[in-house]
Write a structure and sequence with these properties.
By secondary structure, the chain is an alpha/beta fold. The protein has twelve helices and eight strands. α4 crosses α7.
Length: 319
């Protein structure tokens, strides 16, 4: 029997993607592929809302992460010191998806990193590889002069790209400057810009979960408060272990704000509110990204009771 087409679930942070993916995987005998650029890191649990699971040895001697008995790929496998780029992600996911389908299982992709989803399904631009010397120089600017100074450097050479990348997204700012230097052209002219039109619905099912602003704010705040103490402990352990606060993992969403809290820069209340604000700003960008795919199935929720995970999973499977 032919294996069901892959199912991709996308949406903003705290929109219920993981719960829905698990429900679909349980009902179909599926395996999940994470499309979350934060949950790839080891030792980052509370701050990334990584689903609790365990590593198990498989029959071939390899190790696989399981959540509620479901194989969950691309979680908890990269050290916070390591940068994992989108090109590597696409290559690795292609191999993993082929393996899942060879086992007769349904691949369920779930996550909110739009670039991961876009690049896997629609291809990736041919860009120059990372340059350690340029990155070291730019990271030094960010640490000594601040993120705003680094962003200003991008704006000077590529105002179009600078307008699209927030000041706090240091990693993307650095990459844009790096591309410009290595190619001699602004990153805005190198990137194809083909991203925001459609996804190949002939190859899979594509689901976009979107909550009203008020509901999403409530969900984000609830998650932040629930995880706050564990998050603080997690970061203190990492800093005590010698991880630099500007390493790739600790630049993930909300971590700089929590580090400031640990250093006494802000109160707990102020930190919670700041994390909620940056999370909602990020969610707005995620929703804008996914909303541009005009040919995918969109589910909108204006209240908690609208989200019935079991019924939704059944509808998606049978659609």
């Amino acid at each position: 029997m032919e294996v069901m087409k892959p199912i991709t679930i996308m949406g903003a942070n705290a929109s219920g993607k993981t719960g829905l993916a698990l429900e679909i995987a349980k009902k179909t005998g599926g395996e999940i592929i994470s499309a979350d650029s934060k949950q790839i890191f080891t030792k980052l649990e509370a701050g990334t809302a990584k689903p609790a699971g365990e590593w198990r040895k498989t029959e071939d001697g390899s190790r696989l992460y399981f959540v509620e008995g479901i194989p969950y790929h691309f979680l908890d496998f990269i050290d916070p010191l390591v940068r994992y780029d989108v090109g590597t992600y696409v290559r690795d996911v292609k191999r993993t998806m082929n393996e899942i389908r060879a086992r007769g299982h349904v691949p369920v992709i779930a996550g909110g990193t739009g670039m991961y989803i876009q690049s896997f399904w629609n291809g990736i631009d041919e860009l120059p590889p990372a340059n350690a010397e340029i990155r070291a120089e730019l990271n030094l600017i960010a640490s000594e002069k601040g993120r705003a100074a680094l962003h200003a450097a991008l704006e000077a050479i590529d105002p179009e790209t600078a307008e699209k990348i927030p000041v706090n997204n240091v990693q993307r700012v650095i990459r844009a400057i790096e591309i410009s230097r290595l190619t001699g052209r602004p990153a805005s002219k190198v990137w194809s810009g083909r991203f925001f039109n459609s996804l190949p619905v002939s190859e899979g099912k594509f689901i976009f979960l979107r909550w009203s602003k008020e509901c999403l704010q409530e969900r984000v705040k609830e998650r932040t408060l629930d995880h706050f103490d564990a998050w603080e402990k997690e970061i203190r352990v990492l800093l005590d272990e010698g991880y630099p606060q500007d390493c790739p993992g600790l630049r993930s969403l909300g971590y700089p704000e929590m580090i400031d809290y640990i250093h006494g820069v802000r109160s707990r209340h102020e930190t919670v509110q700041m994390i909620v604000n940056v999370s909602l700003a990020y969610a707005k960008r995620q929703n804008t990204w996914f909303n541009r795919y005009h040919n995918i199935k969109k589910y909108e929720f204006s209240k908690k009771t609208d989200y019935n995970v079991s019924a939704l999973a059944e509808e998606i499977i049978n659609s």
